[in-house]
Design brief:
Oligomer: homodimer
Strand order of the largest sheet of chain A: 3-1-2-4-5-6
Radius of gyration of chain A: 21 Å
Strand content of chain A: 25-35%
Distance between the termini of chain A: 68 Å
Number of strands of chain A: 8
Order of helices and strands of chain A: EHHEEEEHEHEEH
Number of helices of chain A: 5
Domain N-acetyltransferase (chains A, B): 85-232
Structural class of chain A: alpha+beta
Largest interface: A-B, 78 and 78 residues
Keywords (chains A, B): Acyltransferase, Transferase
Protein name (chains A, B): Probable acetyltransferase NATA1-like
Largest sheet of chain A: 6 strands, mixed
InterPro entries (chains A, B): Acyl_CoA_acyltransferase, Diverse_Substrate_AcTransf, GNAT_dom
Pfam families (chains A, B): Acetyltransf_1
Amino acid sequence: MAAAAPPPPPSPTPAIISEDLLPTGYNVFSRIRLATIVDVPHIHKLIHQMAVFERLTHLFSATESSLSSTLFPENSPPPFTSFTVFLLEVSQTPFPLIDQNYPNFSPIHKTVNLDLPITDPQAESFRSCGNDAVVAGFVLFFPNYSTFLAKPGFYIEDIFVRECYRRKGFGKMLLSAVAAQAAKMGYGRVEWVVLDWNVNAIKFYEEMGAQVMQEWRVCRLTGDALQAFANV
Amino acid sequence: MAAAAPPPPPSPTPAIISEDLLPTGYNVFSRIRLATIVDVPHIHKLIHQMAVFERLTHLFSATESSLSSTLFPENSPPPFTSFTVFLLEVSQTPFPLIDQNYPNFSPIHKTVNLDLPITDPQAESFRSCGNDAVVAGFVLFFPNYSTFLAKPGFYIEDIFVRECYRRKGFGKMLLSAVAAQAAKMGYGRVEWVVLDWNVNAIKFYEEMGAQVMQEWRVCRLTGDALQAFANV
C-alpha cells in the first residue's frame, strides 16, 4: 500500500485532466456479435487457420457450403438453443450500433488500449462488411446439459483468435462473453477441453476459477467404427 | 479351429429342431423408446441412483420439477435437436407397438435370452405405465458439433442401467441405439467421457472401436467462478 499522499493542491482548471491519466498508446475498438450466414466465408477461414495451428489439417473437411447448411440451416433455431457463433471484430474506429438484440444478448463493445499498433497482414481477406472492421476471432458453442443440476450449460467447441491479435486479452473476452451469456440465462456451467501438455492454457483457466477434470477421458466413436456399432 | 466334423446323419423329421438349438433359460423382452414428460419421476429416480453409484450425491440437486422444465419445456424442440432421453424398458411379455415414430426413429425391440431370471427388488417403483414393463435404464444425449467435419454429432451425458439389469448387454444396447441414430442422421461422431481408473469400461469402449482421447482434459467453470468471470 502506498504511503498517504499529501492533500492535492486546489485545481485551477478542473476541466483539464492530468496527462498521465490519459490513455497512452493505441486504442482498438472491439465488438463481439452473433455471426450470421454471411459470415460463413470468414468462419471457414478461421477454422482452417485453427486446423493449421493444431497441425490437424488432415482432419479438416469443412467447406463453406457444409458450414452454412449445418450452422445456419433453414428454419434455424434461435441463437443459444443450438450451435452458436460469436464473432470478434476489431476496428480503428468505433463500431456503429447494430440491431442485433436477442433475448438476453446485445453485441458487446470494448475499447482496448495497446502499447503498439497491430499490423494485420491478412486484414483485406478478413474485412467485415459494412465498416472498416476486420474479423479477429470466434467462439463456437452450444447447449449441453447436467442431469445432476437439471440445468443446461454451454459447451465451447472452439475458441480461436488470429495470430496478430493474440496476447491482448481477446481470447478472455470471447470466453467471458460465453460465461456472461450462461450466467444471464441461469445456466449452470461452461465447459471446454484443453490438451494436457498446454500448461500455459491450463494455468490461465485455473487462475480464472475453472476446474480441470483430471480423471476424465473423452471417448469418441466415429467413421467406420460408428457405422459398425450402429448396426449391433 | 475345430477339426472337421463327420457329415451329419440324415434328419428323419426335418421339422424338429435339435433341442440344443432351442433357446434355453428365460426370455426377456426389451424396448428402447423416447422418454416423455410423464417419465420424469422415473428419470429422476434413475439419475439419483446414478449419483449414489458415483458417490456424488452432494452434487445432486435435480428435482422432478426442474427436470420437467428443462428436459420437456413448453414448445419443446423435436427429439434429437436438443436434450433427448431414451428409456430402456424390460418386460416378461412382448411389448405392444406404440405410436412413436419420429423422422428416422421408431422404438427398438429386442428379445434377450438369459440363463437365470432377473429378480428386480424395485420393480414396483419402476413400473412403466400401460403394460407390465419396468424401466431398467436410460441414456441422455444431445447434439454437439465438429467444426473440422462441419457436422453435428451426439454427446452422451449419461448412460445408466439399474443394478439388477447390468452385465446383460443392455448398456451396449443403449449406446448402440444412440450410434444408430447418429448414423441414420448422417452425424459424424458420438462422444462421451469415462473415468480414467474405470479400466473395464475403457477396455469395453476400445473393443467397440472408440478412441480414448488421452491428452484431452475437460475444463469446467461453474458456481461463483462462473458468475465472477461473467462480469470480467
